[in-house]
């Protein structure tokens, strides 16, 4: 089972390490010589439980998850993640305070925007703390306003949680670090979508109430989402759920049972049928990362890849337009357009001829997007950077 190493820059589902897929392919057919594949056995069997426990342990190691936090997995993706976060976190706030407060949203791109819209659709109270388009000279997503411009919006206010998307996959905008004014608020739970940058860089888990990440970019196949949650939040949800009358009075919707975090945790991520093959692949990705220097090494490599690609595009800045403020350029999704009209199709065609694929920008933004997730090699990025430089030289006149 082999393949030529791809140079694939798709935004998701994305490329995974070939060695992981080779091992997974064998295990899909005959896991540990059971005569059955890993996806064919009961999700409550000893072997499946071992996969769940190992995945949790490996993730804990990779991210130094403290004892204050629990790790669990749930069917679904990023959308299931932000829908379920909204009801669970509002419920937790009721458990902690006996009241409701809006969920606050820092809107820096289409995923945080969608998360806020979804919470509002569920008839939960929300507040957009800022929408970065209002601070942007072009009125577009592509920058993150300085804290001094919005910190007063949270001063003295209560929020059941504050939500942000650490890496906006469509717009290529990534928070360089958590905003200090939020970190300083011990009474606010920071809830973050790390779907497209989990395990790409070190993060301090103790600062987060919840981290959620869909698998299909840096850590696996579509269909599974991971969560890292403060244990006190789980306790507060259970406390509120024991008082259904109060939840009804405060108009807080009941979370569907398969997405109720305390229930999922109590059942070790197997309340309902967890896709165990998908989780096994995630664990193989974790193990692969542990064997190759962990997140620290991966972060260095990701920095190097981002420097190579942004460096090449910046050098040809007469030809390429990079719409994102350098202060918050994503190290995962490099978004760019051509300044000259009429060359987009040719760019993709000539790139494909060099076996560089998956470069088309998101349909809502246009242009190009090179996703350089963990599994994309430095060599692939160098090849793309050279192609971009050559293409600019060839078509500049
Ligand atoms: N959040 C982010 C940052 C994403 O990039 C995506 C999808 O690309 C989502 C959420 C939604 O994920 P899904 O399609 O798995 O629901």
UniProtKB/TrEMBL annotation:
Aminotransferase class V domain residues: 9-384
Cofactor(s) for this UniProt protein: pyridoxal 5'-phosphate
PROSITE patterns: AA_TRANSFER_CLASS_5
Any Pfam family matching the protein: Aminotran_5
Gene Ontology cellular component annotations, sorted alphabetically: cytoplasm
InterPro entries according to UniProt: Aminotrans_V_dom, Aminotrans_V_PyrdxlP_BS, Pser_aminoTfrase, PyrdxlP-dep_Trfase, PyrdxlP-dep_Trfase_major, PyrdxlP-dep_Trfase_small
Catalyzed reaction equations: O-phospho-L-serine + 2-oxoglutarate = 3-phosphooxypyruvate + L-glutamate; 4-(phosphooxy)-L-threonine + 2-oxoglutarate = (R)-3-hydroxy-2-oxo-4-phosphooxybutanoate + L-glutamate
GO biological process, one term: L-serine biosynthetic process
KW Disulfide bond (keyword) present: no
EC number(s) given by UniProt: 2.6.1.52
Gene Ontology terms for molecular function: O-phospho-L-serine:2-oxoglutarate aminotransferase activity; pyridoxal phosphate binding
Keyword Amino-acid biosynthesis listed: yes
UniProt pathway: Amino-acid biosynthesis; L-serine biosynthesis; L-serine from 3-phospho-D-glycerate: step 2/3
Keywords for the protein's UniProt record, in alphabetical order: Amino-acid biosynthesis, Aminotransferase, Pyridoxal phosphate, Serine biosynthesis, Transferase
Family per similarity comment: Belongs to the class-V pyridoxal-phosphate-dependent aminotransferase family. SerC subfamily.
Name of the molecule in the record: Phosphoserine aminotransferase
